[in-house]
Design a protein that fits this description.
With 359 residues, the chain is mainly beta. It folds into three domains: 7-84, 2-Layer Sandwich (GMP Synthetase, Chain A, domain 3), CATH 3.30.300; 142-250, Thrombin, subunit H, CATH 2.40.10; 258-349, Thrombin, subunit H (Beta Barrel). The chain is 8% helix and 36% strand. The chain is globular and about 60 Å long.
Length: 359
């Protein structure tokens, strides 16, 4: 059985769990996890701590004593730290380069019909203009890292291709593309069987010419409702396509060799995504519980997440994040200009019942 925590972080996780609810009730706190203490003078001290992620770091004199993150928590007086990450969004971010256009990898906000899209009679250019790092062109077979999306959204990122989690040896009966729920399933608003375009609609993808797959299954996102704060673990979905159209290689990153399910703070990771292309980051927080905005007042709480330095922008949602040795760490789904949030790959595989590597 894989673990999602390094062995030396298990005790810290217990302390985090005991104090998490109280910390998340404090003003501006949008997440809690395990990190290392950052000093204004010394930088990263390497001292393990409980990290409170805040949307804005305010001077202590502006907060009442009851609203301050305590300097230590628990009977063992475990140190805490406060790290500013801004507001966390799945798709719609401050750095969304589309400006007033629909959110880059989030659903349009109109009332959506459930009808099959009509075929378009005219052809669109297949060569798309964009920034030097963007991966917006049509690709067959399609590799991870390129533009993709449900036909009702703008565009996100194809993470990788995969197949059902069946025992070896055997012959897979179906083949899928892997990405986020909010990229392939329109944040719970899609129907099974809906067309998936590659490239996504904002990058010139049209139905039926650019349909690469049909939505097969997704893990529903459970949003806040009143005082209810249900926990989510992944924003993930798969869509079934033809084997000849799908490639398990991730552009500029290679093939997934195995899973790296228990990353350490300080690990260097990489990804290739639709908007920012190939980027690297450093893991800053593990086992994080974070509150993520989905627009239109919808917020969802995610547990056991991985937080890195900023390595993504709107449209990169769905990218597979890898360790430097091509070991899968997780599925990128949210972030801000200060941080990127990643689902642990173990939960992605288990909850979608798919396999992203051989064994």
């Amino acid at each position: 059985m894989h673990s999602t925590l390094p062995q030396d972080s298990v005790q810290l996780a217990e302390i985090q769990h005991a104090n998490e609810s109280a910390l998340l009730e404090l003003p501006n706190v949008v997440g809690v996890g395990i990190g290392t203490k950052i000093s204004d003078k010394k930088g990263d001290t390497g001292q393990p701590c409980i990290t409170a992620l805040v949307s804005a770091k305010l001077p202590s004199e502006l907060l009442s004593e009851s609203d301050l993150v305590p300097k230590v928590v628990g009977s063992k007086k475990t140190a805490t730290d406060v790290v500013e990450v801004g507001d966390l969004f799945a798709g719609d971010r401050d750095d969304d380069f589309m400006g007033d256009m629909p959110v880059l990898d989030y659903a349009t906000r109109e009332e959506l019909s459930r009808e099959e899209p009509a075929a378009e009679a005219h052809e669109h250019p297949t060569i798309q203009m964009g920034t030097p790092t963007s991966l917006t062109r049509r690709v067959r077979p399609a590799e991870g890292g390129h533009s993709v999306g449900h036909y009702r959204i703008t565009a996100g990122t194809l993470g990788t291709c995969c197949y059902d989690l069946n025992p070896f040896p055997g012959t897979p009966s179906k083949y899928y593309i892997l990405s986020n729920n909010h990229v392939l399933a329109n944040s719970n608003m899609a129907n099974i069987g809906d067309p998936i375009l590659q490239p996504g609609r904002v990058d010139g993808g049209t139905y039926p010419r650019d349909m690469i797959a049909r939505l097969s299954r997704y893990v529903p996102i459970r949003f806040w409702a009143g005082n209810s704060r249900p926990l989510n673990y992944v924003d993930a979905a798969v869509a079934e396509g033809n084997l000849q159209d799908l490639d398990r290689e991730i552009f500029w990153c290679g093939y997934i060799k195995k899973l790296y399910t228990a990353p350490n703070v300080g690990d260097i990771v990489q990804k290739c995504g639709r908007t920012t292309g190939f980027t690297t980051g450093r893991v800053t927080t593990i086992n994080a519980t974070v509150d993520v905005n989905y627009g239109s007042g919808r917020v969802a709480r995610f547990a056991r997440q991985i937080v890195t330095t900023p390595m993504s922008a709107g449209g990169d949602s769905g990218s597979v994040v890898l360790h430097r040795n091509e070991e899968a760490v997780g599925l990128l789904f949210a972030g801000s200009s200060s941080a990127t949030i990643i689902n642990n790959i173990l939960y992605v595989q288990s909850l979608l019942r798919v396999r992203v590597h051989e064994l």
